[in-house]
Amino acid sequence: MSAGGPRPRDSGNAYPYRSGFIAVVGRPGVGKSTLVNALVGTKTSITSPHPGTTRRSAFGVLEGECQQAVLVDTPGIHRPVTALGREMNRSAQAALDDVDGVLMVVDAAGGIGTGDAHVAREVETKAQGVPVFLACNKIDNQRPQSIMAVLSRAAEWLPIDQGRAEYFPISARTGAGVGDLARAILASLPEGPPYFQPGTRTSRTEEEWIAELVREQLLVVMRDELPHSISCHVSDVEDGVVTCTILVERSSQRQIVIGKGGQVLKRVRERVQPTLPAGTRLALRVEVEPNWQRRPTVLERLGYR
């Protein structure tokens, strides 16, 4: 994950600076992005009730005193049925290469099973010798016996008695247990330089973030309609106007995204516009790109490869 050769072992400070990359992995829908946002202390990734909302790996930066953990928020590892799904898996698996630690997230409310076991095998295979933090998320309203059952099952894959894995019952939504997890991650970091300027919270460019915000609000406004058939990207910036193009796979979907009298796009624009920099105006347009999720050339053009 690092670049530019070996990491310096001493920053020259009175106390050596500590830094590192932490891959955040898990199956879809376990709350990885919500947890990254909670750890960083601000919104760095979009979230929604739909599994598979995160499509590209992105960095969230957790800072301590002379410490910086770069959290690599990844798509959920799953059994893919499209070229997009395969690229999402590839992105998540690649995040496990050359990291200083792994944060694996499981869902206490929904239970754990074969999908989580598959993720754990990926962690054991690709991230050998680094600390593993297992976050048992969504403990809200869960009985202690249920939480212990989830942790006991996870211990079969990541044995705590070997000294490598630490387990944290948490709620990313309420913040319960998140502080303890943050402190443990920061304490585990090796000596190294800061990879981002102090105060940086995300690696996303402004254009990438605007496109993500549009997609997030489309998921909110449209609810269960077309969550996986939509892709968003900024296609033009001129004279203070940012044009975000929304791709769908069929003409019938285009009309759904526009809405009767343009109401869906209007509601999305009204939700995103207040979050943009002063003087920036958002324009939305919808285009049909047949079967874009299954076409590697289109995925490459959209930046998924």
Q: What oligomeric arrangement do these chains adopt?
A: single chain
For the sheet with most strands, the description reads: 6 strands, mixed
Radius of gyration (CA) equals: 20 Å
What is the H-and-E element order? EHEEHEHEHEHHEEHHEH
The fraction of residues in strands falls at 15-25%
Shape: globular
Describe the strand arrangement of the main beta sheet, using strand numbers: 2-3-1-4-5-6
Provide the structure class: alpha/beta
Classify the helix fraction into a percent range. 25-40%
**Uncertain residue ranges:** 1-14
Number of strands: 9
Text of the CATH class of the largest domain: Alpha Beta
The name CATH uses for the topology of the largest domain is Rossmann fold
Number of individual domains? 2
CATH superfamily of the largest domain: P-loop containing nucleotide triphosphate hydrolases
Q: Provide the CATH architecture of the largest domain.
A: 3-Layer(aba) Sandwich
First-residue to last-residue Cα separation: 17 Å
Average pLDDT value? 89
Number of helices: 9
Descriptive account of the structure:
This protein has 305 residues and is α/β, with parallel strands linked by helices. The chain folds into two domains: 170 residues, Rossmann fold, CATH 3.40.50.300; 96 residues, GMP Synthetase, Chain A, domain 3 (2-Layer Sandwich). The N terminus is likely disordered. It is globular. Helix 6 packs across helix 8. The protein contains nine helices and nine strands. Helix content is 32%, strand content 21%. The strands form two sheets. A six-stranded mixed sheet has the order 2-3-1-4-5-6, with helices on both faces. It starts with 17 loop residues before the first strand and ends with a helix.
